[in-house]
């Protein structure tokens, strides 16, 4: 099944200046409960990059909050 990005939840990548939220999280990992589960299990999420390409990221458990997810590229 293909990922969808209709919830438009964005996250910042590690090392980005000013913590710009530019990566769109997939709908399967965009809710607070799904984010918590993905952090616990280190589940890679297929996120949408600003240029339209896709890449796998994991949520950084030490820096992320439900309102401000921080992503680390796998």
Mean pLDDT, all residues: 91
Shape: globular
Low-confidence stretches: none
Distance between the termini: 21 Å
When the domains are counted, the total is: 1
In spatial order, strands of the major sheet run 2-1-5-4-3
Describe the protein's architecture and organization:
This protein is α+β, with helices and mostly antiparallel strands and 74 residues long. The chain has one domain (10-48, 56-73). The protein is 14% helix and 30% strand. The protein has one helix and five strands, in the order E-E-H-E-E-E. A five-stranded mixed beta sheet has the order 2-1-5-4-3. Strand 1 (10-13) and strand 2 (21-24) form a beta hairpin. The longest helix is centred in the middle third of the chain and has 10 residues, at 32-41. It is globular. The mean pLDDT is 91.
TL;DR of this structure?
The protein has one helix spanning 32-41, and strands at residues 10-13, 21-24, 45-48, 54-59, 70-73. The protein is α+β, with helices and mostly antiparallel strands. The chain has a five-stranded mixed sheet.
């Amino acid at each position: 099944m293909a990922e969808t990005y209709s919830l438009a939840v964005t996250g910042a990548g590690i090392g980005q200046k000013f913590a710009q939220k530019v990566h769109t999280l997939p709908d399967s990992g965009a809710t607070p409960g799904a984010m918590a589960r993905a952090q616990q299990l280190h589940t890679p999420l297929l996120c949408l990059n600003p240029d339209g390409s896709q890449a796998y990221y994991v949520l950084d458990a030490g820096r992320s909050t439900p309102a401000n997810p921080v992503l680390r590229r796998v």
